[in-house]
Every structure is written in C-alpha cells, then in structure tokens.
Design brief:
alpha/beta; eight-stranded parallel β-barrel; 14 helices; 40% helix; 14% strand; binds (3S,4R)-3-hydroxy-2-oxopiperidin-4-yl beta-D-xylopyranoside
C-alpha cells in the first residue's frame, strides 16, 4: 500500500514536471518580447485558473501577463437566476485571485451581450411583438415569451453591472461593458436587433457604460466587437462610437476581437483597420485573437457563436503551419506599427486543445503546449520591431 502510494506520487510528480518542461521548451516569452510595447493576454478556463491543468498553467505563467475570463463572468454563468442570491461568484472570484497572485492585468468579460444571457433577464408581462412586426423575427434570440418593460430591463441591467463590476472594483482593470452590439451584413442598420435593443431601445449601450462608470470609475470601459477587419462593420463601429462620444458616454477603449482566418489575416488589412479605428482617439485592445486554419472558416471573420461549429469544419487548409505563421507575423507587424494605441493583445485561449475553435488550430501553442512555427514567427517580429525602434 505504502509502495503504491509512493509510486503514484512519483507518477504525478513526473507528469507535472514533464508538463512544465514542455512549457519551458521555449526560452523566450511573449510577454518579455513585447514588453514596453503592449501586454500579452490569454483567455482562461476554470481548469487553468484553479491550477488543475498543470501544463497549460505553466504555459500561461511563463508566456502571458494579462488574462481574460473565457466564460465565467458572462451573465449566464455569474448571474444564472434572478434575485440577490441568484449569483454564482465562486469561479469568477477564483479567476481574479489567480490574476492577482500572478501579478497579471485582469480583464472582465462581459457585462451586456445578446449571447450567454439567461431568459429570466428579458422575461416580463409585456406581449412580444407579433410576428411580422418584429423585424428580427424569432430566429437567434432564444426567448420569445412575454417580456420585461424598458424600466424593468434597465433595472436588471443596473443591478447586474453595479453588483458584478462593483465586486471586482480596483481588481478588474478593464471591462467589456457592451459586447457585439453591431449588426452584421451590408445593410444600413448599425445596431444588431437584440432583445436589449428591442426592449430598451438603442440607448441601452449608453446606459450600460453609465452604470459601469458608477460601479468602477477607474476601470477601462471597452466597447468590444468582432469582424472589425471588414470595412462595412468597421464603419458601423466608428458611427456608433462617435455618437456615444458626442453624448459624453464614458467609453474609454475599443476592443477588437480579431477572430481571423489564415486567408484574410494580413499586415495590410490589420494596418488599415487599426489606422481607421485610431481616428476615434481611444486606446485599442485586441481582445480575442485567434487565426482559424480550418477550411470551413476561410470565408469571413464573423465570430457569431451560433455558427462556430461550421467555422471549424472541413479539415485544415493546405500548408497550414506556414500560412498560420505568415498570418500571425503580418498582424503582429501591424500591432507593432500601432503600438502607441494598441495597449493589449489577448489570445482567445492558451493552446489549440482548449480553443473554442480547436479544429481550426488557431493559436501559437499546440495541444501539448508546445510552441508552433507561428510562435517563432511572432517572436521574430518582436525582435525586428525592437531593432527598428
Ligand atoms: C466563446 C467561448 O470561447 C466558448 O467557450 C463559449 O462556448 C462561447 O463563447 N465572442 C466573444 C466570446 O465575445 O465571449 C466568445 O467566447 C467568442 C466570440
């Protein structure tokens, strides 16, 4: 018995040191390579911030100096039920503790979003618009029952933001206050026809930023969205943020998700996107970087979670390792060119195995936390960047 215990202890020790050795294969770290330019962040899952996934944890500590919560601060997870005791703070508390313990820049994601929000938030006694009078139709909203009034929903939003952002005041340094409020597609419509917009009206965005500022006046308050590499969507972003600024709404940074693909990610398109976004005069955070190598995800840079499975279908594109390395080199060259505005670059996951687009192998580290050629390419850009500084 004694022996067995010893043996299993030894086995665990070997696994742990083996995993750490993997992470240490690289003797250079992203966070050091880009020091004095911008922070390098990573989205974490619970097995990472509770230190169960030893290999990924070692990698995270070695390579990154900023973190984002992949899911645990979303409304569905942190506030699943109505009422004062409807919150589930434990995972988010653990996430924040991990960041504090490791001296990392801690991000909060996300306060107001159409996705991963429980139905009770929108429920009430007002009849929903009749089909035909509801321009968004039934599709995609998940909730079509009797709904809350504007005042009820604003009340819930205020309480949620005050409670969640208030709890982590001073610890969470930047919040995605509103996520993905822009409409996709080439139409004229600037805003997505979400339940937030339908029930409260377009000023739900201004209200959310106001509540967030009340909760934590020192936090960076981001407007965050995807697809901003596309001219039409970016034009909508600029329209939205300019109108918020004209009204004195406290939006203090732009979050650009940057869920890219190897076919369209390039220095030129990122340079163009950053150049135009900079006209807003706000710091820019790249919030969810990954570059999809799956054939199914090459046609657009939508990150609509409803279509995620399709975006990773079909196996990898030919010559994927090289194409990924080239794509990453290009976008990092653009981040470096715009380093005065780009303050943070966050990867949406530590390695390919935990990525929400695992089939598209979109990250710098493989499923065993080993650096890929794309990692070397990014480090190379950092070196060139400092040589020309
Ligand atoms: C994704 C997570 O990575 C998944 O684990 C989850 O199932 C769905 O959401 N835009 C966002 C992120 O703002 O919150 C999404 O994260 C990816 C797209």
């Amino acid at each position: 018995m004694h022996n067995l215990n010893l043996r299993s202890l030894l086995a665990v020790a070997l696994i742990v040191t083996g995993a750490v050795a993997n992470a240490a294969d690289t003797n250079v770290a992203l966070k050091d390579a880009f020091k004095s330019r911008f922070n390098i962040g990573v989205a974490l899952n619970p097995r990472q911030f509770t230190e169960q996934d030893a290999g990924a944890v070692a990698l995270v500590k070695q390579q990154f100096n900023a973190i984002a919560p992949e899911n645990v601060m979303k409304w569905q997870l942190i506030h699943p039920r109505a009422g004062e005791d409807g919150y589930n703070f434990e995972p988010a508390d653990q996430y924040v503790k991990f960041g504090e313990k490791n001296g990392m820049y801690i991000v909060g994601h996300t306060l107001v979003w159409h996705g991963q929000t429980p139905n009770w938030v929108f429920q009430g006694t007002n009849p929903p618009p009749a089909e035909g009078q509801n321009p968004g139709g039934k599709k995609g909203f998940g909730f079509n029952g009797p709904r809350a009034s504007r005042e009820e929903l604003l009340d819930r939003m205020r309480t949620h933001i005050h409670t969640v952002a208030g709890r982590y005041k001073g610890k969470v340094k930047a919040w995605d206050v509103v996520n993905e409020a822009l409409a996709d597609g080439d139409g004229e419509e600037v805003l997505r026809n979400s339940l937030w917009r339908q029930i409260i009206g377009p000023d739900f965005i201004a209200k959310a930023f106001g509540f967030a500022q009340e909760a934590d006046p020192d936090a960076v308050l981001r407007y965050n969205d995807y697809g901003l590499e596309n001219t039409v969507k970016r034009r909508k972003l600029i329209t939205l943020v300019k109108s918020l600024q004209a009204e004195g709404v406290p939006v203090t940074a732009i979050g650009t998700q940057a869920h890219l693909n190897v076919s369209s990610a390039s220095f030129e398109s990122m340079d163009q996107a950053l150049t135009e976004m900079e006209t807003l005069g706000l710091p820019i955070h790249v919030t969810e970087l990954d570059i999809n190598s799956a054939q199914g995800g090459q046609r657009n840079t939508s990150a609509d979670i409803a279509n995620n499975a399709d975006a990773t279908k079909g196996g990898l594109v030919d010559d994927s390792a090289k194409r990924l390395a080239d794509a990453y080199a290009g976008v990092f060259r653009a981040f470096l060119k715009h380093k005065d505005q780009v303050k943070l670059v966050t990867f949406w996951g530590a390695n390919d195995a935990v990525s929400w687009r695992a089939n598209g192998k979109p990250l710098l580290f493989d499923g065993s936390n080993r650096p890929k050629p794309a990692f070397e390419a990014v480090i190379e850009e950092a070196k060139k960047g400092s040589a020309s500084k």
